[in-house]
Every structure is written in C-alpha cells, then in structure tokens.
C-alpha cells in the first residue's frame, strides 16, 4: 500500500467517521446519559436523510438541515411518548417506531426507494465553491462534517451543564430519585430523546448530501455501527468530563470507519462487513472485562501450570523407584 493510498483511505474514514459520529453522540446522550436504549436509530437516520434530500432537491440546502433535525425531533418525541405515556418498554418502543418509519420514509421519498441528488445543490457543493481558491480545496466534505460535529459537541458540553441537562443526567442515573426531587422524569426523557434523535437525523441528512443520493436502506445497521463506535470511544476516553468523552465518541467513530475502509480496500466481500461490525462490538464490550479479569486468569494459569509440574515430578519420582 502506497502512502497516497493510505492517505486516501484515512481521508475517507475521517469524512465518514465525522458524519456518523453525530449518531454516536446521539447514542451518547440517550444511552450513556439518559440510560435509554433507543432502537429507532436506523429508521430515524433514514428519516433525516429522506427529509433532508427532499428539501434540498426543492432548492433549499440549508433549510434541509433544519427540516431533517425537526424530523428527528418528531421521531424522538413519538418514541419517548410510547415509553412514558403508553407504558411501552423502551426496546419495544424503538422497534415499533423503527418499523413505522420505513413506510413514512418511502412516503417522504415520493413512493420511491431512491432519491438522486446529482444535480442538486447541497451544503457540501456550496462549501466546495467557497474553498475553490484556498489551500483547503478538496476538503469541503471534511470541513462541513467537522463544523457540524464541533457544533454538536459544543451544544452538549453547554447543555448538559444546565439545569435541564443535569436533570436529564440525573434521570438516567436514578429516575425514582429525580421524581422525589420534584423533577418530571417523563419530560426529561422525552426532551433527551428528541435532542438525541435530532442528531441522528442530522447525521443522515449530511451523509445523503455527501454521497448525492438517498436509498431506503441508508440507515440499515446504523445502530450497530454507532454502538460499536460508542464502546470503542468509551474504552479510549471513557473517563473525564463531557467534552473529553464526546471527543472519545468521535475518535471511536473514526477508528470504526477506518477498520471498515481498510477491510474494503483488501477486497473483503460487502456481505462480510456486518460480521466485521459484530466482531468489533464483541471486542469493544468484552475488552475492558477481559482486561480486568486478566490478572485473575493469569494467576489461575500459573497455579494450574504449577500443579501439572508437581504431578509430573511425582510421576517421574515413582517411575525411578
């Protein structure tokens, strides 16, 4: 592999990692802070991509971002409403919303499973024109994604230190304690899911505009990818303040995408990538546990080895009698 090829792979992984890290930050808020496992991520991602593409095709690239985030807020509201007002389990609520969004996404896309945006002006093409005569020429995709990620991280750092943000974090830690403190956990749960899903929809919108097309399956497996990135980031930078942990989420997303990109570079079949995702998730989950258990395993192996040696010495001794 040449240096130019390696740099190209790194650039591709960085662009996709930054865009998908918005979904990872959404899970960081809903899963790590609010302690809610939201399985509507796949459908919400596609929902944001479809709404953003539909608005961008009509000639409003900037408005498409706002529209996509509003769509994500609606998705998060429905998921939270099912959980808190309808008595539906959080996992089941996410699955129901994810299933329903498939039909809604098809409707948003005009009854088609694909929207072509080759001749559509997007935020990426506009940034490309702005950077045409600058040293950053050719880096428009990365810059747009970086701006979005920086804005989301800045929002999280500020928001999670406000009274409402602290209430959301407290709800994730102990909902009963929050209720006894005259804080409505229903409200904090719905608000947290609305914000998280707006990030997911934003991620889908940016990815669709980046690749100039939207497919109905664009969000398939996104919850697995985001969860793997979340766990990788938590392993690397899991301790510290909100900013450090959020940066860890972005770093985890980049590492995951880098593995994906390298796998594709070595001609791995596309159908094997889901298996790669599963293996990465298992390693990310079991890694910290195995690391904690390693000293005990080492002692057991040493003790077992000593017993085997003692038995062998005893056998040799009786043989020589």
Describe the structure.
The chain is mostly helical. 78% of the residues lie in helices and 2% in strands. The protein has 12 helices and 2 strands, in the order ααααβαααααβααα. It has helices spanning 3-33, 41-57, 61-85, 90-108, 123-130, 140-159, 163-173, 175-180, 185-211, 222-237, 242-265, 273-319, and strands spanning 114-116, 213-215. Strands 1-2 form a two-stranded antiparallel sheet. The radius of gyration is 24 Å and the shape is globular. It starts with a helix and ends with a helix. 41% of the residues are buried.
Instruction: Give the low-pLDDT segments.
Output: none
Structural class assignment: mainly alpha
**C-alpha Rg, in Å?**
24 Å
| Lateral arrangement of strands in the main beta sheet | 1-2
From the N-terminal CA to the C-terminal CA, the straight-line distance is 64 Å
Total number of helices:
12
Give the averaged pLDDT, no decimals: 86
Which range best describes the helical content: under 10%, 10-25%, 25-40%, 40-55%, 55-70% or over 70%? Answer: over 70%
Strand percent estimate = under 5%
Total strand segments? 2
Shape: globular
What kind of sheet is the major sheet? 2 strands, antiparallel
Order of helices and strands: HHHHEHHHHHEHHH
């Amino acid at each position: 592999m040449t240096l130019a090829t390696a740099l190209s792979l790194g650039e591709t992984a960085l662009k996709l990692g930054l865009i998908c890290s918005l979904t990872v930050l959404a899970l960081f808020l809903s899963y790590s802070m609010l302690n809610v496992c939201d399985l509507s991520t796949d459908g919400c991602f596609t929902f944001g991509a479809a709404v953003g593409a539909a608005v961008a095709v009509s000639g409003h690239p900037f408005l498409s971002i706002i529209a996509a985030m509003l769509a994500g807020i609606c998705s998060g509201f429905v998921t939270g409403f099912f959980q808190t007002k309808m008595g539906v389990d959080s996992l089941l609520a996410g699955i129901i919303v994810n299933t329903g969004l498939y039909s809604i996404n098809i409707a948003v896309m005009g009854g088609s499973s694909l929207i072509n945006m080759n001749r559509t002006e997007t935020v990426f093409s506009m940034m490309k024109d702005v950077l045409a005569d600058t040293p950053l020429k050719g880096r428009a995709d990365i810059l747009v994604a970086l701006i979005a990620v920086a804005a989301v991280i800045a929002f999280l750092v500020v928001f999670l230190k406000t009274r409402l943000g602290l209430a959301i974090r407290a709800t994730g830690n102990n909902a009963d304690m929050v209720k006894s403190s005259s804080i409505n956990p229903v409200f904090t749960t719905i608000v947290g899911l609305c914000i998280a899903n707006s990030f997911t929809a934003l991620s889908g919108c940016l990815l669709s505009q980046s690749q100039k097309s939207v497919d109905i399956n664009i969000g398939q497996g996104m919850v697995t990818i985001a969860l793997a990135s979340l766990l990788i980031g938590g392993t690397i930078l899991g301790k510290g303040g909100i900013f450090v942990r959020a940066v860890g989420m972005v770093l985890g997303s980049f590492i995951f995408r880098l593995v994906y990109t390298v796998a594709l570079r070595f001609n791995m079949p596309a159908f094997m990538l889901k298996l790669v995702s599963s293996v990465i998730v298992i390693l990310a989950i079991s890694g910290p546990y195995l690391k904690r258990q390693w000293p005990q395993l080492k002692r057991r192996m040493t003790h077992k080895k000593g017993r085997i040696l003692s038995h062998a010495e005893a056998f040799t001794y009786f043989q020589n009698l």
